Amino acid sequence: MRYPNSWNQVKRLSALIAFILAGASNAPAGDNDQKNLDEQIKGEERAVLTDAPNVPPAITRKNATKVIVHLEVKEVEGEISSGVRYVFWTFGGKVPGKFIRIREGDLVEFHLDNHPSSKMPHNIDLHAVTGPGGGAASSFTAPGHSSVFSFKALNPGLYIYHCATAPVAMHVANGMYGLILVEPKGGLPKVDYEYYVVQGDFYTKGKNGDKGLQPFSMVKAIDERPDYVVFNGSTSSLLEDRALPVKAGETVRLFIGNGGPNMTSSFHVIGEIFDRVWPEGNTNTVTENVATTMIPAGSAAIVDFKVNVPGNYVLVDHSLTRAFNKGALGMIKASGEENKLVYSGKISDEVFLPEGSGIRVADQKSAKAPVATSKVERVAAGRAVYAANCAACHQSNGEGIPHAFPPLAKADFLNADKLRAIKVVTGGLTGKVTVNGQEFNGVMPAWSLSDEDIANVLSYVYASWGNSGKEVTAQEVKANRVKVGAKGQVVE
Ligand SMILES: [Cu+2]
Hints:
Elements: H1 2-25, H2 31-38, E1 41-46, E2 64-81, E3 84-91, E4 100-103, E5 107-114, E6 125-126, H3 136-139, E7 146-152, E8 157-162, H4 168-173, E9 177-183, E10 193-202, E11 212-213, H5 218-223, E12 228-231, E13 244-247, E14 251-260, E15 265-270, E16 274-278, E17 287-290, E18 292-295, E19 299-306, E20 311-317, H6 320-324, E21 329-335, H7 375-389, H8 391-394, H9 412-416, H10 418-427, E22 429-430, E23 433-435, E24 438-440, E25 443-444, H11 451-463, H12 474-480
This protein binds copper (II) ion.
């Protein structure tokens, strides 16, 4: 009988394959290291380094080479969230640091330069390095100095690198991390897009949303109470015009790191399933069909997926208050033809946007923000308050979303009564409301914003989109605000 015969052959063959595979994984630890140590170095090149979200081109070389890396540490002031400034310590001027891409077996000559304007010494610990401190001991560099060390890339994989100068957690919390990819000899499977994203947790003296320059809080860092958890160093680095562009029908790879210093990431893309994941950046092991992958602090993962239908896909840490309230949100924007077979129905673009931290649960203390001295200043300041707190629902053009969020643009309800608008924003609004002939029955939360911020945002709304142009002052807000008790109940 032919069928059982050939079936037996298949079984014997698969037993043989299993034996070979088992043999491979039973090889003594470090065998591959020796092969890579023995591989001859041919030629020399300077590494192409990129800022997030960009990734250097794939390596097509068939041989190991000497790669020269120049990375410059800079301490730079930037924005972590709208109106919130922070002094980041960086590898290359941005958070995360530059993406470094080399090949297994390469010999890396690493130059760490510390910019003369730095206030601190810094160093680098690359998890791709075999040797004491991952290079930290040899790369300790004072401001205005430069250190050189070299290493052989023995293990393929995607690795985090970070500063390891004391206090280490502080240097990391200030943004000193990035990714280095040691490509396996055969390379990774080809995809249409590759992007670079690193999550990090930030600890500020003020609370989330407090404006101005915020110093680092060691107390909160030790307590592991981050005020911000963000991708690529800011709450908006991957939103709106900075969303990652792709085309429907094409494949995307994300090199995802987690700099920490403390939080573990439950990384997920809303509306996508990762076709392939290399967990913990281990390029030897691939798993399939994963929706959420865990990325420990100080680790990384590679995720691949095909975007089948156009629309917006939101990157989150699925510990969700980190995403919607502390900033761990990013977006992939897929353009192209709809594929009704895969997904039919309306594609909603606007729901998954930051909700801000202003939803009131307790009495608020207003932050010491600058006070507007003219209507022009008020309206200008109100634009940022609107973007952070209102645009998620009422949209950045004030048009709202039919049947869900009423318009503020040319809105009869809004324009009819300024004091009522103050009550709506300070006390919230529920139940039926008719705006421009359309009925809405949703929930508008009460906002724990200062008198000044509410005056600014309402003045901005009134000055925009064909509205009446009325000014709302902080005194008017103070006199007309709905008071909310410590438990969140209205105590008018
Ligand atoms: Cu440092």
